Cobalamin biosynthesis protein CobW
Amino acid sequence: MPAKIPATVVTGFLGAGKTTLIRHLLENAQGKRIALVINEFGDLGVDGGILKGCGIENCRDEDVVELSNGCICCTVADDFIPTMEKLLDREDRPDHIVIETSGLALPQPLIRAFNWPGISTRVTVDGVVTVVDGKAVAEGRFAHDIAAIDAQRAADDGLDHETPLSELFEDQIAAADMIVVNKTDLLGAEEAEALAAKLKSEARDGVQVVRAAMGALPVEVLLGQGAAAEADMEARHEVHHHHDHDDEDDDHHDAAHHHGHDEFESFVVTRSEVTDPKAFAAQVSEVIRAHDILRLKGFVAVAGKPMRLTLQAVGPRVDTHFDRPFGTEPRETRLVVIGEAGLDRAAIEAALAA
């Protein structure tokens, strides 16, 4: 059976910067073929218009699908499932699917939809990315323009849940595998750090919180989380609401070519063979927690084993498997460490070599 296609769900209120983040992702996709499912609001078609015909090589018009019949979590059976089936039935199936929800969408019903029989064996939720308007939240609001959100709510005839914005925000945080505190260029360094720490304390254990300006995040940070969120719904506690909904998203910022990649760093750590792979995986997890590492991946040489051990870690979750013999490659452990700028490289290298 072919491997499941990974899908990333991008959620967050109107104006948080979802569309800008996705455009930046497309511009830096590194050859990955990405299909987009955009939950537009009514007849506006703003986000799809921004992304269609945008001149980005990996962004063909046929790879951008707009769902405009209302909030995506309220139209799962009628709109979302048939759309996914069409994407998955294509001969040129995408490498990755990115779904931008309406700003009013409850994330959990959408994630649960990936368990539907027609798609459950063919696609998986690689991760849920919640985009937060850092400036607005720091000022005690959930979005830059609450009036615009209320207007969208009132205009969506298909909305069947009346969720207060505070509860919807809690749902978006509860569902997240990664929280992107966007617009940090509008905050002071201490203010941005304090907000990120607060959101991390409110999220599930292991959820990554990263800061961004203009949605500029490296593709290797956003994609490849391997969360299989649809199989992990119990951990994503849903706030109880009356089913009613809120809006969509379009970033009022201009998608300028401002790439904040210098806010992230990566480096390679090498060490000798390890004797106990399980103990080493636990050691890696502890190092990740201690140094707030986003991703860690590479190959491990295990004493007495001809096969190399592939290791991939997202947050404190570490997955390993033996993939193939080393052959003529040196029998050494090589790990790539990825995180926000300012990692203590010497301490990390020492801790992984211990």
In short: Residues 277-291 form the longest helix (15 residues).
